[in-house]
Amino acid sequence: MTTTPRPRSARARHRPWPSCRQCCLIALDLGSARTRAWMPGHGLVLDVPTVTFGDGATYPIRRGTIVDTPGAARMLDRMLGHRLPHSTRPLLILTAPVLGGVAFRTEARTAVETLRPHTVLTIPAARAVAVAAGVDLTRPLLVVDIGAHVTDVVLLTDGAVTDARRTTLGTSDLDNLTPPAQITDAVVAMVATMLEQDHTPQTHDALQRGVLLAGGGALRPDITRRLTTQLSDSVKPVPTPHTAAVRGAATLLQAAHTHPSTTAISQTLGHPH
After folding, report:
1. Apex CA 125: angle with CA 166 and CA 17, to 5°?
2. CA 8 to CA 178: how far, in whole Å?
3. Helix, strand, or coil here: 163?
4. Spatial distance between the Cα atoms of 259 and 6, rounded to a whole number of angstroms
5. Coil, strand or helix at 65
6. By residue range, what is the domain housing residue 222?
7. What is d(CA 5, CA 2) in angstroms, rounded to the nearest whole number?
């Protein structure tokens, strides 16, 4: 996390959102296929393909990995730079794929420097999804996020990531030769491996509780029906599942806005050690 301390006088005048008009807050979800941004008071201000332009169109994020950090920065500047007052340095929160690790968070923070943030927080995408769904995070929870290019299965315990699996297969891969069954079979296999390797009751308890389903794949009835059948448990799509991660991040951003220690906030956002 990067932090720029605010002057004492500014902190003294600081008021909670949304009455604080001197602050700019941005929740950002950098996906392989789409980039989404949410600004409290404005809602979803950005939902566009993750693409930038130089000598033709290029894609700075592939299969959940930032492969062109300068390209990602140019994309963000083009899409969001004009929305920010020149005198404002925003408080920004980024969703990060759990298995992207430190590398993704580092490259993403470098890319968002083009927006001149005074503070950047990161949150695992799976936790952001759970926050958007309004579920009880004190109990173990399985989150399945089926995106366009990758599919993640994440176990949250007390809101923190305790296990995670990934397949580089998503809805954009589906065609006559790659049916939805390939995605659902991969999800079931990842859950089975988690159950086998977990020597605690957490994964089993989370499965009994029901799987939280997010991402564009949750909008496909063929995928949700097959998952429900194969897992023999309740599969619960998050409302508006394709924007759940950025909406959950926005909820946490508002809570972090006036927190006395952004370091303490970052330590509670659920990143794996």
Report:
1. 180
2. 58
3. strand
4. 13
5. strand
6. 136-242
7. 10
Report the number of distinct structural domains present in the chain.
Answer: 2
**Rounded mean pLDDT of 21-25?**
67
Q: What is the phi/psi pair of residue 185, to 5°? A: -60, -40
* Structure token digits, residue 60: 């700075």
60 and 193 share one domain: no
Does a structural domain hold residue 114?
Answer: yes
What share of the chain in percent tops pLDDT 90? 70
Inter-residue long-range contacts of 76-80, CB under 8 Å, 24+ positions, other chains counted: 76/28, 76/35, 76/111, 76/112, 76/114, 76/115, 77/114, 77/115, 78/52, 79/35, 79/37, 79/46, 79/48, 80/26, 80/37, 80/45, 80/46, 80/115
- The residues facing 21 across adjacent strands are none
Rounded to the nearest 10 degrees, how much is the dihedral formed by the CA atoms of 226, 232, 233, 235? Answer: 0
